[in-house]
Write a structure and sequence with these properties.
Helix content: 25-40%
Pfam families: RNB
Protein name: Ribonuclease catalytic domain-containing protein
Strand order of the largest sheet: 4-3-2-1-5
Keywords: Hydrolase
GO molecular function: hydrolase activity
EC number: 3.1.13.-
Length: 684
C-alpha cells in the first residue's frame, strides 16, 4: 500500500481527520472546507466548526463527500475500532528505545517507518494516539514529536509514580484518618482497611512528617486533604499515628521537630570515616606527658571531657586542666562533621543518652578514660593565694588519666580529708567562687530531681528522686570549668584567637548578686537576667561574674566547645586559628538555629515525664511555694519536681506573699499539651 503524507495544504470534504478535545484525540469527518476553516461531524454525531490548524498531523482516508450521515457514522466507527486495536498492540517504549539518541524530534511518518515497511492511515493515526499518551517519553510540538532524553524520562517516570502515589494516598487517607480519630475518641482499636504496603508506607510518612512539622509542600497539601473534617487539636497527627500503632505511646515528638536521630545508629552511615579517624589516632599516638590527673563525673558518665591536677605554686596554685581533643584527627567539612554539627549537642533525657559524637569516638577513642593514652589540651592556670588569675599557658599533649572519680567519692574524700590534692582543689574552688560573687555573679542552687523510667510503651512508669548533693566536689568541678572557659577566653583575646563566646553584657543590680536557694529568690533573680548570646566578641558574662567566657570544656558534648577547641589547637600548632572571625560569624547563624532546636528537646522532655508522674498522682497533695503573686495569675513552684504551675489568685486566698507554702492537687494534667490545672490549694 502506498504511504500517505501528513496533512497537505488543504483538507477536502469527505476526509477522516482527528483533533484534540479534552486531552484526547477526537475522530471526525470533514463536511465543508473554506479558507482553512472546517465544518466537521464528530464520531459523537455533533457538528462543529474548527480551524484546519487545529487538526492533528495525520488524516485519511479521503472518501466521497456525498456520503450519507449514516455512512459517515459507520465509517467513523470502523476507523475508531481499527485504530484502537492497532494502538493496543503498539509498544511505544520500544519505539522510544529505537528513536532515542537518533534525532531530537521528527514527524510522525518518521516513527512509522521505524515500525513498519508499509503503513496506512489507521496505523499512522494509532501510532500518533499512542505517542500522545506517552507524555513521559515524547513531547508533541505540532507537527513533530520531540524525543525526551533518558535522564528526563527517568525524572518524569519518577514524578509520575509519585503523583499516582499521592492520588492513591489522598483517596484512602481521609477514610483512614477519620476512623483513627473515632477510635482514639472512643478508646477502641481502629478498623484498619486492607492497605497496600506502598500506600501504608506513604500514609505513615505523611503522619510522621506532620508530627515533626517537616512536611514538604506536596505532602502538606496531602495532609490538608486527608485531615479535612477532623478537629484542629494540638498534636493531631501524633494522636492518629499512636492510635494506628506506627508510633509508640510517649513518642518523643520533640526529636522529630529537631530532626535529631536518637541513639547511635545514625553513625553507621559514617563507618569508613570513623575508621580513618581511628587509624590516624593510632598512627599519631605519643608517650603521655601527664599521668597524674583525675576526672570527677557522675557514675554513669561515659563521655569524659575533662580532668585536672593541682599543686602549690609558691603561696598560690598551679592548676592544670586537661580537656579531651576529639578534633585532633578530624576532617572539618566532611559528611561526618556536618552530621555532628547538625546534632549540635548531646542529649541527656530520662529515657537515656544520645551523644553528639559517634560513640566509638565520643565515649571510646577520645573520652578521657583512666589508663588510656589520649590527645588533650592541657592548660596551666597560675593563680594567687586568693584565686586571682595571673597567667594562662595552654599546650597540646598526650595524657593518661590516673583515675575517673565519681562526685560521691570525691566529696567524701574532701569531707574526710583523705586526699590532699582534692582538698587543695576545694580550697581553690572556694576562692574562685568568692571572687565571682564579688564580681556580681548570680549563683542558683536548687534541688535536682532525677527522673527514671521503668517498663516500655503504655506500661512505662515514672519515678522521681532527689539527687543526693555532693556540694564539695560539685563546687570543684563547676568552678574549675568556669575558670577554664573564662581563662582561655582571656588568653584567646590577648593572642588574637577568635572564639565563640557566650556573652551576657548587661548591668545587674546588686540584689541580683549572691547565692540563691529559695524558689522565690531564684525566680526574682532569673527575671533580672537576659539569655546569653553566642558571638565572636569577648564580652562580660554577668551572671557568671567573669569578663569573658568561651565554652571549651565539653568538646565531646557540644559543638561550640568542639569548634573552640579546634581554634585553640590550630593556633598552638601553626600560629593561626582554623577559622577567622568572619568565618566564625557565618557559622554562628546555623549553629544557633541547631542549638535552639536541640536544646528544646532537653528543656521540654523531662517536664513531659514529670507531668506523666503527676498524672498518676493527680489527687495527691504536693508541696508548693508561691514565687510570684503579680497579676491575676499567681505562680507556684514545686521544688522537689522543679515544675512551676499557674493558678488564679482567688484560689490561693486574699493575703499572698512570696515564699508562702501550700499543698496543691490537680483537676487536669495533660503531659502532651503541657496543660496543668489546679484543683485545690491549701495553705500550710
Amino acid at each position: 500500500m502506498a504511504k500517505t503524507t501528513p496533512l497537505g495544504p488543504t483538507v477536502r470534504p469527505g476526509t477522516v481527520v482527528e483533533f484534540m478535545h479534552g486531552d484526547q484525540p477526537q475522530l471526525a469527518w470533514v463536511l465543508e472546507e473554506s479558507s482553512g476553516k472546517l465544518r466537521l461531524l464528530t464520531i459523537n454525531k455533533r457538528e462543529m466548526k474548527l480551524p484546519a490548524a487545529r487538526l492533528l498531523p495525520w488524516h485519511g482516508p479521503m472518501l466521497s463527500a456525498d456520503a450519507s450521515r449514516q455512512d459517515i457514522q459507520n465509517i467513523l466507527n470502523e476507523r475508531q475500532e481499527a485504530r484502537g486495536e492497532i494502538q493496543a498492540g503498539l509498544d511505544v517504549m520500544e519505539l522510544w528505545e529505537l528513536a532515542q539518541g537518533e534525532v531530537e524530534s521528527a514527524p510522525l511518518d518518521w516513527f512509522a517507518d521505524l515500525l513498519w515497511e508499509e503503513w496506512d492511515e489507521d496505523r499512522l493515526a494509532a501510532l500518533g494516539r499512542a505517542m500522545l499518551q506517552a507524555k513521559t517519553h515524547f513531547k508533541f510540538r505540532p507537527p513533530v514529536f520531540e524525543i525526551w532524553p533518558a535522564e528526563k524520562v527517568a525524572l518524569k517516570l519518577r514524578q509520575q509514580a509519585e503523583e499516582k502515589e499521592r492520588e492513591a494516598i489522598t483517596s484512602v487517607g481521609q477514610t483512614l484518618l477519620k476512623d483513627l480519630w473515632d477510635a482514639y475518641n472512643q478508646g477502641r482499636k481502629p478498623r484498619l482497611p486492607d492497605l497496600a504496603p506502598d500506600l501504608a508506607k506513604g500514609l505513615e510518612r505523611i503522619l510522621r512528617g506532620k508530627v515533626g512539622e517537616i512536611l514538604d509542600e506536596t505532602d502538606r497539601k496531602i495532609w490538608t486533604a486527608i485531615s479535612k473534617g477532623l478537629p484542629d487539636v494540638p498534636h493531631l497527627a501524633l494522636l492518629l499515628a499512636q492510635t494506628w500503632g506506627v508510633l509508640p505511646p510517649h513518642h518523643n515528638y520533640h526529636l522529630d521537630e529537631a530532626e535529631y536521630a536518637w541513639g547511635d545508629e545514625w553513625s553507621q552511615s559514617f563507618t569508613n570515616e570513623i575508621k580513618e579517624i581511628e587509624n590516624r589516632f593510632s598512627n599519631q599516638a605519643e608517650a603521655p606527658e601527664i599521668e597524674d590527673a583525675v576526672s570527677i563525673d557522675a557514675s554513669t558518665t561515659r563521655d569524659i571531657d575533662d580532668a585536672f591536677r593541682i599543686e602549690r605554686h609558691g603561696t598560690g596554685y598551679r592548676l592544670s586542666i586537661v580537656l579531651a581533643r576529639p578534633e585532633a584527627h578530624w576532617t572539618f567539612g566532611s559528611p561526618l562533621d556536618k552530621a555532628v554539627l547538625h546534632r549540635a549537642t548531646s542529649l541527656y533525657l530520662p529515657e537515656g543518652t544520645s551523644h553528639m559524637m559517634p560513640e566509638r569516638l565520643g565515649t571510646g577513642q577520645y573520652s578521657l578514660l583512666a589508663g588510656e593514652p589520649r590527645p588533650a589540651l592541657v592548660t596551666d592556670f597560675f593563680l594567687a593565694a586568693d584565686g586571682t588569675l595571673e597567667k594562662v599557658e595552654p599546650r597540646t599533649a598526650w595524657v593518661r588519666i590516673k583515675a575517673n572519680t565519681t562526685y560521691e567519692d570525691a566529696d567524701r574524700a574532701i569531707a574526710e580529708r583523705t586526699d590532699e590534692s582534692l582538698m587543695l582543689a576545694h580550697d581553690l574552688a572556694t576562692h574562685l567562687l568568692e571572687r565571682r560573687l564579688a564580681s556580681g555573679a548570680c549563683v542558683i542552687r536548687k534541688p535536682e530531681p532525677i527522673v527514671s523510667l521503668e517498663g516500655d510503651g503504655a506500661q512505662t512508669s515514672v519515678n522521681i528522686d532527689l539527687k543526693e548533693p555532693s556540694p564539695r566536689s560539685e563546687l570543684v568541678v563547676s568552678e574549675f570549668m568556669i575558670l577554664a572557659n573564662s581563662g582561655l577566653a582571656l588568653w584567646a583575646r590577648d593572642n588574637g584567637v577568635p572564639l565563640l563566646h557566650r556573652t551576657q553584657d548587661i548591668a545587674l543590680p546588686t540584689e541580683a548578686a549572691g547565692i540563691f536557694t529559695e524558689p522565690a529568690e531564684i525566680l526574682r533573680s532569673v527575671k533580672l537576667l537576659l539569655p546569653p548570646t553566642l558571638e565572636t566578641a569577648p564580652k562580660r558574662h554577668a551572671a557568671l561574674g567573669v569578663p569573658a567566657y568561651a565554652p571549651i570544656t565539653s568538646p565531646l558534648r557540644r559543638y561550640t566547645d568542639f569548634i573552640n577547641m579546634a581554634q585553640v589547637s590550630s593556633f598552638l600548632a601553626s600560629g593561626e586559628p582554623r577559622l577567622d572571625r568572619d568565618e566564625l560569624d557565618q557559622l554562628i547563624t546555623h549553629l544557633n538555629m541547631r542549638i535552639q532546636a536541640v536544646s528544646a528537646v532537653q528543656r521540654f522532655r523531662p517536664r513531659y515525664w514529670k507531668l506523666v508522674y503527676l498524672t498518676k498522682r493527680r489527687r495527691e497533695f504536693q508541696p508548693a511555694v508561691l514565687v510570684d503573686e503579680a497579676g491575676p495569675m499567681a505562680t507556684l513552684a514545686m521544688p522537689h519536681l522543679q515544675v512551676n504551675v499557674r493558678a488564679p489568685r482567688k484560689m490561693l486566698g486574699d493575703k499572698l506573699y512570696p515564699g508562702q507554702r501550700f499543698q496543691i492537687n490537680f483537676s487536669r494534667i495533660d503531659p502532651l499539651t503541657n496543660e496543668i490545672r489546679l484543683s485545690e490549694a491549701l495553705e500550710e
